[in-house]
Structures are given as C-alpha cells and as structure tokens.
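Render Hotdog fold thioesterase in 3D.
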Amino acid sequence: MSEQTSIQLPPQGADERAAFQGELLALFSSGYLGTHMGVHILEATAERVVGTMPVSGNTQPYGLLHGGASAVLAETLGSVGSLLHGGRTKTAVGVDLNCTHHRGVRSGTVTGVAVPLHRGRSTATYEVIINDDEDRRVCTARLTCLLRDAQPRELAA
C-alpha cells in the first residue's frame, strides 16, 4: 500500500485498533487482485474510501480501460468501507455489484471515491464514483456487501 495510506477504525480500545489496522494493512498489500492491478488505497474510513489505479496494464484489446478493471477498483474500495463499518467482529463479502461505464480512458490514472448509501447491521452499500485524471466521470458503481460474523484469524493474510 502507499505510504499515504490512512486507515481510521471504529472506536475500540487502542490495542484492538492497532491490531485490526495491522491485519488490514497485511490483507490489502499481499497478493489480492487489486494489488496485481496497481490499486492503491489513499484514504480509508467507513465514511469515505479513496483509491487509484493505473490505466496501463488494465486495458482491453482496444486500448481502453477494461470495464472489469473499474469493477475491481469499485469492489475493492466499497469492500474496505464495508469492512471498516463492520469493525473487527465482521467480514465484508460482496453480494451485488453494478457498474455503469460512462466514457473510455486510454492512459493515466483513475481515482475512485466510495461513500456509503446504507450502513446497517447485516449489509452495507457503497456508491463508487471513478474519475479520470481530468476529473471526468468514467464509471458509477454500487456495491452491496453482506456483513458476516468474522471467524478467528479470517482477516489475517
């Protein structure tokens, strides 16, 4: 993850927050799909998650950003927000993802911002807006995650 990463956790004891943050950092920097695609989480709270992804290496054969790459960025950011909302006792599992692709992108970086539409006890829904380097909307996505009870060590990488 980027050195700029800032993860703020739900109110808990300082030792629990530090342990949970360490597990999250390990989880999101060790081999998950977003890592392979160059996703960097720049800011993360349950209220807002921001991340970037390069277009290069994530295109379809015509040289445009692959729609599936936008979906990976959206699901990653929404899942992080859902996980932070659920806290240490919950695991976030995506159950519905909808992406509307507005324009093609051939180069640069895309930036996604995820904000909650609903944060409940058993589900969390985030809207993710993905923009290009010129702040033009590339994709609008909505992710709903099921918040399941976490199993011991389930968050460990």
